[in-house]
Amino acid sequence: MSNSLPLIALSSSVCVGHETEGWNLDETADESSEDRRFRWDVWFDAPFSSPPVVHLGLTGFDLDQCSSDRLRLSLVSVTEEGFQVELSTWRDSRVYSAGFQWLAIGS
After folding, report:
1. Which residues contact 83 (CB under 8 A, 6 or more apart)?
2. pLDDT of 64 strictly over 60
3. Which domains does the chain have, with CATH numbers?
């Protein structure tokens, strides 16, 4: 028999945007401005025994039609209890909302 724990998979969808506290990706900026970043914490319903592997997928967005479309979704950190994602944009791009799905696999 193996001593390994069974795998657990959790997943969900998240939508954040201009009505979310701290959202700053819809602010106007010029070419000399730094990247604008928004971080969001996701908490698992039940903790894993060690940090799981997390996969992210962008599922939708609402961007200003008068600017270039720039949006990045990144995983910042992962713990047994949850993870943090970062949405970012730069230059004159204005993002009003973004949706993503996540899948966490671990034991």
Report:
1. 41, 42, 54, 75, 76, 77, 102, 104
2. yes
3. 13-106 (2.60.40.2080)
